[in-house]
Amino acid sequence: MTASHKTASFEMLERLSRTPDDLAPNLLRIAPCVQGAVVVSTCNRFEAYVEVDEPVTAAGAVGVEAVLEAIEQSTGITASDLEGAYAVHSGRRVAEHLFAVASGLESVVPGEGEIAGQVRRALKVAREDGTTSPELERLFQRASQAQRKVKNVTAIGRAGRSLVRLSLELADSRIADWTAERVLLVGTGAYAAVTLATLRERGATNISVYSPSGRAELFAKKHDIVAVAERDYARVATESSLLITCTTATEPVLGPEHLQAQAGAVAGGCPMGAADQSSQLVIDLGMPRNVDPAVAHLEGVALLDLETIRLHAPLEELQATDAARSVVREAADTFNVVGDRQSVTPAVVAFRTHILSLMESEIERARARGDEDGRVEQAMRHLAGVLTHTPTTRAHELAADGRGAEFIAALETVYGISPAAAGAAGAGPAVAASA
Question: What is the DSSP string of 368-384?
Fold first, then answer.
């Protein structure tokens, strides 16, 4: 099941962004058929990648049901709340979806680079929680490889812009001189560092930082800016012309009480482009929201949040995006072919073992009857090779076409062979959930 800015409302994504860390472990506990789970949760998407020990035809429904139950247990968001807010990918479509996500092709701003690190961190968390699986490991590792290839051989990385960069580009219409801006940065994480670098690229020099978690001094010293103490936060916020919040706090860290402004402006705040009506611009890059929406109603304050930034996201750079999607499709095809061949291998081994076992029995009989020169043995070994060659070749051809299950079914029907591992051909990372 998958929910993203393409399928879900901003409010729903905000609720899902508060998903506790126990969701993946809950998935494995709820459904014994779930072999592994990796959850990717960002400000614009929630995705659960699940390996389900069920035939492909049933894996999608089973996986979605398990994900929905785990979400409800962990967050209180019910299946009815999520209805219409997610999409489901199963089987061979999973790899192409994840590879596209990791490469930034499914982001609000196509080509943005932050998502690649978020995908890698999701796998790391799953490893730490013990919820990953060999097939999910292979899937996510190949996703990182596909992302690097997209970055190296296409222009999507250069064409794409991060949310930070896009938000500051939107602010350009109301800022005449970046060197004159009094900037307050709220947050000290990796995203704050990216924001600071982007501000400096635009010429901002008067920058202060406040940390709700008390890390402002260390961040300020490292980046040569001014740290703001708790007691001075409201005063500096009031005096700043540009405020940017990017913390992981689950509750607002900036509200009307910090800006000390008079309420009474037009509901919804000043629109972008009305620079002459506002003295302060607040950019909220947090998910969940870092800024109390009531700030938008303060006189002289304009609020730009992720929902607004999403609406202003530029059209895709068609040529770059097309080239990137070609790379992703090729990588996904390779991933699926390798996986299919691996899934059919136990059946091929079982088939060849069966034939060779029959051959050895007949060779023993021939020896008992006096095959002293070994000609019968030689002929039988040659025959066994001929008999196994075509079915083996055909098995891998079917697997490459995603039809390996047909070979396994035929093997069971004709020879009564049903290798335990062959049943796994219908399993795999069956569901990619985007909420």
Answer: HTT-TT-HHHHHHHHHH
